[in-house]
Description:
Structural class: mainly alpha
Radius of gyration: 19 Å
Mean pLDDT: 92
Order of helices and strands: HHHHH
Amino acid sequence: MSYLRPMTSSRKTSLAAGILYLLTFISIPTLSLYHEIHQPNFILGSAPSCDVVIGGILELLMALFCIGTAIVLYPVLRKQNETLALGFVASRVLEAALIFAGVAALLTVLQLRTLGMEAQVMSRGLVMLYDRLFLISQSLIPAVNGLLL
């Protein structure tokens, strides 16, 4: 007697969407990985930049998983309301694009370290830009995503 039944199409979609949603939490460690870059004298200091690079990679992966959730759920959501389903895809893509922009800002700060004191003001501005993009992309837009779902 076998307890394993073949998975239906909707069950596979549910499983894929659930896994992708769980994978979007991969970026949680960035809160601690980005601690040093938020320090006012980061650009002049000798703190290692590998934490920022690792955090950036985690955030880029998360952004891709965000898009993946929208793509996987679109066929199911389209059956309920095609306009809202398309809005959900657009919202997730916008979320990912803002995450990409934020990571690009932080990686630019790492490049500015070679310039020394002259780049300190610009680096602080880029870190502030990242913080604002973070608030929009990972605080506001997920609420919009939830409303669209």
